[in-house]
């Protein structure tokens, strides 16, 4: 056996892989019926025990004790033995996740386990494991070594020796073939997880669309009446030589027409910036000399890049409400737009009050509580995820008292 293929765990190696590996709960995504069927198929085809474990080594499918070697059942008949077995399962699962490949390791008692990691959404979700086998018939030295490993459990020595002699013995080739079979089953599991996630996103998006459509319908109630009133105010302001009021009403009218009449899922950045100009003119009038605003379009090609509508305005609104408004004195707000390889990048930066590390952490986590409270941010994240099929980034950087930067990176697509 090659040393790079079989590895016996030490506490130091396990602690390192446990600290480095991320995790996510597979129970939120998996189909128990399907996984149990795959588990039974594997055990019937190979005659070996098999389990699907979470990142902590806890089984998420039923354990079939009759498939476990008598030696393992004997060791697990005492609490300390059961704890060691669970620890071994956790170790081989964590190691396979950290290595991102199938591994074969020795358990605490000296028997061999094999594990294939289950990776989904860039997280190690768990592993498909099998084992409790020997790769050659037990010699006297092997039996002595195994007895030494479990000596402190206080089990009957004669019963242990008899159980060791009953542990399944398979060749290295068969263990490799069994591991390959497990890899095929894991591929099927990951595809199942992807399909379930896709269905969940589709249902979530349909619900989101329905909610948005209802809001749009509500916003469209009597729009002509609203625009007629705005035109009346604008005309009156012009007659009275109230140029600032005239400009304010015109900016508001342009902004509302964009929202009500131009409801499309995706718009060009050029359209977004044109709409944002009217919005920011109103904000500059509101804050007078306290707010400055600038747009830095570094790549003209980005004008035709597509983005979910009102993305920029929602992020600007959040910057003004949570960063600019609470701060006294002059503040700056700017947008930088450029391309990097095949991605478009938009940076929105303010010199407002900033935010503390806890809020920043929650905003950068998709399920963070603060992000949930900011419904606009949650809406943007969902729409970016839907339209760009997960190939996007939405990140926040901030320092208290100095300001906040929002960074969006997304694939460059143009309206055909």
Automatic annotation (TrEMBL):
Domain Signal transduction histidine kinase internal region: 213-291
Signal peptide, first to last residue: none
InterPro entries: Bact_2-comp_sensor_kinase, HATPase_C_sf, HATPase_dom, PocR_dom, Sig_transdc_His_kin_internal
All residue ranges annotated as the PocR domain in the record: 30-192
Organism: Paenibacillus spongiae
Domain Histidine kinase/HSP90-like ATPase span(s) in chain numbering: 311-412
Entry protein name: PocR ligand-binding domain-containing protein
Highest taxon, organism lineage: Bacteria
